[in-house]
Description:
The protein has 93 residues and is mainly α. It has five helices and no strands. It has helices spanning 2-11, 15-39, 42-61, 64-84, 89-92. Helix 1 (2-11) runs antiparallel to helix 2 (15-39) and helix 2 runs antiparallel to helix 3. The model has no long low-confidence stretch (mean pLDDT 86).
Amino acid sequence: ALLETAEANAEEERWDDAKDLTQTAQEKWEGIEIYLHILLRHSETDSVYTGFREVFEFIQCQEGGEYSAANARLIAELELLSEAEQLTLKNIL
């Protein structure tokens, strides 16, 4: 939700707000990253770290289109990791 709100701020050219929200999202990620780093492949957690770095670069440059694409990839990666942690029939099979 933080990254989606950051996206809306960027669309309104409120880059500082987008950066602050992305920073908060990254801090939340770092709070659970250790746990996930133990349970998941390192490449999956590393990909999220790389995604945050990419998003921050586009925020810094205020590159709207590139930022939107990178942010969408990051959101998708986080959603996939969240889904993988859910106890569902899909994950058991």
